[in-house]
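Morning F.,

Quick status update on the modeling queue. The single chain you submitted on Monday has been processed. Sequence for confirmation:
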Amino acid sequence: MWRSAGSNFRRLSTVARRHIDDEGNWFYSSEWWGTESDGHSVLRSTSDKGNGVVSVVAYPSSRPSEVYWPVTEKWLQKRCEETQPAGEDRGRFNILGYQWRVLRFNDVTRQSTVKIMAAYRDSEPGSVFLMQQPHCIAVPYLKSMVSVGLATLASCDYDLRNVVQGNEKMRVLCIGHGGGTLPLFLASKIQGAVVHIVEIDPLVISASIQAMGFPAFSVMTPSGERAFSKPDTIDEILWKGTHERLFLFESDAEKFILNTTNQYDLIFIDAYDGDDIFPRTLWDPDSPFLKALSDRLHPEHGTVVVNLHSDSELLGHDGSVTAVLEQLLPMGKYVSKVCRAYKDVLVGKKRSGLGFTVSAPWVCNSSLVVSRGFEKIDANFSRETILDSLISNSLEVDQILDLPFSCMQYIKRGFILID
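Structure tokens below.
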């Protein structure tokens, strides 16, 4: 969930536009930032988990251009031939188009934005399937979270290349699901990533699968088993094993973390509710959640990344939060407390641990990072030394994962160490 920093940030020059290769570039936000009347609602229901009215609104996407659709259709056909036994009626794949799908809470808050491909097989003309585009991260704060999380882990002497190639496992936990952009991106880019996702609202889970193209095979039962005994044929064709490394749990975050025995290398937390509030139970230093989270984090390189609504540019002239902003940013005035709580509980007095924040461009969000690594960095933990290490490793992350965007721009912006 994020906040807009203004209305003029989407104006780029025509020269800049020609060089945009990233389909999730903020330039394209003009295609999905509009009101519900600019698009059309494909799902709408009321949550009983505090998220109010949950809706998914569809908007046309200009990319990929229709001239490239035959290439994707051939790829789908090849995947079908690899997946289905010879002799079966496979049918020919046809792409209907691409859309932005925006998950909204209470018709105001844009919780998630994804790009989906809609297609069908001529053997089943009445059946349309959706595939979320895993390479496309549309919202800057998610790019910020990915960039700082992976660059920090790489700075902890963690063998990211081996994990990306699938030779080793990386255990990832995502608290807060939304449309599923973050877990799907990680699982598709990192062959060794095993991603657990925790989402309290079953309506959000349903919306991500039915209207936003997230793999249905990921859904887990309360007993910890797959909701579906095996993936359907379309999932096998679309995801080529990626869906088998996604595990989506319907659960309260505190309950999940108190009951799990898993140890995680990387944890992402993005858990604002329908009222735009980050629940106190997820950041109170005396809460069972933070203490249990500490036990579940890898002791040597474990890294946590938290999305927070930034208040640094929105304070009054005396640094206080005005009554109006308290209503608009119910979490804003607590950002420093959240940062301190996470660092104190997860790192404590460990010499090798540290915490920092960066600000996401174009939106009023900050990414908080707390890590137990950095053993090989100078004991003084100077800002310059740490930032240099992160930037150096971010370049390696770009190269290893072949990212469509640069991690460095998200690491350098508003970098602040937590003392």
